[in-house]
Specification:
This protein has a six-stranded parallel β-sheet, sandwiched between helices. A six-stranded parallel β-sheet has the order 6-11-10-7-8-9. Helix 2 packs across helix 3 and helix 5 crosses helix 6. It is an alpha/beta fold and about 250 residues long. The protein is built from seven helices and twelve strands. Its EC number is 1.3.1.106.
């Protein structure tokens, strides 16, 4: 089994699979985080060399199934995984946590990209809490009239907006923590990607409670023909339907 990604779901799936007799699981990490958390089973770091390189790796290791559990915005590796799986006849599953949904009291502004988010900001606020990760901040670098608070696990790649305060931190975060941060930095607009999951959702609740607008970057679509599952138990159920892998269903509760 090959799992792509260092997400929470990837770690949970690897731990489950690695504990099963006769299953060898390898998790592949992109290498963008300098100190990743522990992972069960085998671990490799770095790219494969595109779809062709991944296809070669699948053939050489005689991989029975591929699970793409990368971040919902890792569009390139997801596309490569779909192409490599099709080229080699390897069954593939896309494990993608459900996205966030706006509720009563939310003031969300959905956009299709980071540049679209940057275009909206001047009309929404002057002090921006930017939580889109360390990549892609160049889309906001031209906004010299705004103050940015940028939160990232790793140091962000330049260029950055000229007026930027960097916070190095990793979730999960509580609503109380996020509310205190928004108040301390006098934030009046939040920008985030629709990553989904609970680890970083508290900022959305805090923004709603404070009446702040939220610019939400929509996810890229999943590749055509690739089955998408929302969680680890469903991924295991899907894998269990494959020939020779009938022992991979969810454990009895």
């Amino acid at each position: 089994m090959l799992i792509l990604g260092g997400t929470t779901e990837a770690r949970r799936l690897a731990a489950d699979l690695a504990s099963r007799p006769g299953v060898r699981v390898t998790t592949s990490l992109a290498g963008r985080v300098s100190r990743p958390g522990p992972l069960a089973g085998d671990v490799r770091t770095g790219g494969f060399g595109g779809a062709e390189g991944l296809a070669a790796w699948l053939r050489e290791r005689r991989v029975d199934a591929l699970v793409d559990a990368t971040h919902p915005f890792a569009a390139r590796i997801t596309a490569n995984a779909a192409h490599a799986a099709a080229a080699t006849g390897t069954p593939v599953v896309l494990l993608r946590r459900p996205g966030w949904r706006a509720g009563p009291g939310d003031d969300w502004h959905p956009v299709g990209s980071l540049p679209e988010a940057a275009d909206l900001l001047p009309g929404l606020g002057d002090r921006v809490f930017l939580t889109t990760g360390r990549l892609g901040l160049a889309a906001f670098a031209h906004l010299s009239g705004l103050h940015f608070v940028v939160r990232s696990v790793e140091p962000p790649d330049p260029p950055l907006p000229p007026d930027t305060r960097l916070l190095r931190d990793r979730g999960p975060f509580t609503v109380a923590d996020e509310t205190a941060l928004l108040r301390e930095h006098r934030v009046d607009v939040l920008v985030t990607k629709d990553s989904g999951g609970a680890a970083t959702a508290a900022k959305l609740t805090a923004a709603r409670d404070l009446g702040l607008p939220v610019v939400v970057v929509r996810r890229p679509p999943a590749p055509d023909g690739v089955p998408v599952v929302p969680d680890v138990p469903t991924a295991l159920e899907r894998l269990a339907r494959l020939d020779g892998l009938d022992g991979l269903g969810p454990r009895p509760r």
